[in-house]
Amino acid sequence: MSYARLRSVEHQTSASNPGLVFVQSRCEPGCLFNTKGDRHMSPWVNRWIPALVAGVFAFSPLAGRAQPVTIDFDDQVEPCAFIQTTALRDRYADRGVRFRGPGPLDGPAILDTCGNFNIQPHSGNNFLAFHRTAPLMGGGVATDPSIMLFDPPAFEVSIWVAGGLSEGLFGLEAYDADNNLIASDEVAAETWAQLSVEGAGIARAVLQERGRADPPIFVADDLVYSLGEACPENAKVKARCSRANCGPRIVAKLKKGPPDSAVTFRLDGDVERRAGTNSKGKAKVKFCPVSEGDHTVEVVECGASAKTSC
Questions:
Q1: What is d(CA 249, CA 310) in angstroms, rounded to the nearest whole number?
Q2: How many CB atoms within 10 Å of residue 85?
Q3: Distance between CA atoms of 30 and 25, rounded to whole angstroms?
Q4: pTM of the entire structure?
Q5: What is the pLDDT of residues 241-262, one digit of tens each?
Q6: Closest CA to 142 of 206, 209, 217, 72
Q7: Facing residues of 298 across strands?
Q8: Which CATH class is domain 68-227?
Q9: Burial of 126 (0-12, 13-18, 19+ CB in 10 A)
Q10: What is the 3-class SS of 213-266, one letter each residue?
């Protein structure tokens, strides 16, 4: 019985079920994974593989910039009133995002649920709160828009919003570094609803209530974003379907992508595979088994896609 050193791990998730993870390993001499197949794994490996996989995901380069970042605004104890705090600015700069408002001191503030917004936070005890006429400590008003600046740029951004006291019409717009609109989303909501935008090179996202809320009070929570290198315009995706032992198999390749970066391949808008590009911006993943028929594979960070049939 021979074992090999774990060289890398590719993992596959479902966009509709992000808690579901599939693991495929590649090994080199010295690994704890049996090279003869899972059915011959030692009891020790079977017992501890969840911990090993968790450790690999935590430290592997493949689990780098493309991993989603979640900010739930619950990292500190917050006050109940706007006058007791200031607009959110650079608290999360070390996580790749800074916040700005329409004026030097303006913008939403993080408040506790005791602020009486007629709705509980989407998670935890705090949320990002807006009030167009409420003064903040030290000056400024807790008004929108909330401007989120991403460094490095993001390729997907989502946030939950709610009117609380009334229905609001909320918009989220994503811009690149040259102020070109990449994507936008809109939702009317009194209770919690999610806004989401996606595209390569999101340097700035703007969250705003578009005038329906009365009174002009609303909240946001659970900001989620994925940071990644901007993909070159000439990036190309190829996909080919063939028959394998596992069934119909799609091999997808990225060429001229961002070098030495983590990228996300998405099959038919649902199943995702993450992989790392080499120094030339090349990456490859496999989807198997897949259903018979037409399929589309896209690389999320690049906005590039390819079609194939099985």
A1: 8
A2: 19
A3: 14
A4: 0.61
A5: 999 999 999 999 999 998 877 7
A6: 217
A7: 266, 305
A8: mainly beta
A9: buried
A10: CCCCEEEEEEEEEEECCCCCCCCEEEEEEEEECCEEEEEEEEECCCCCCEEEEE
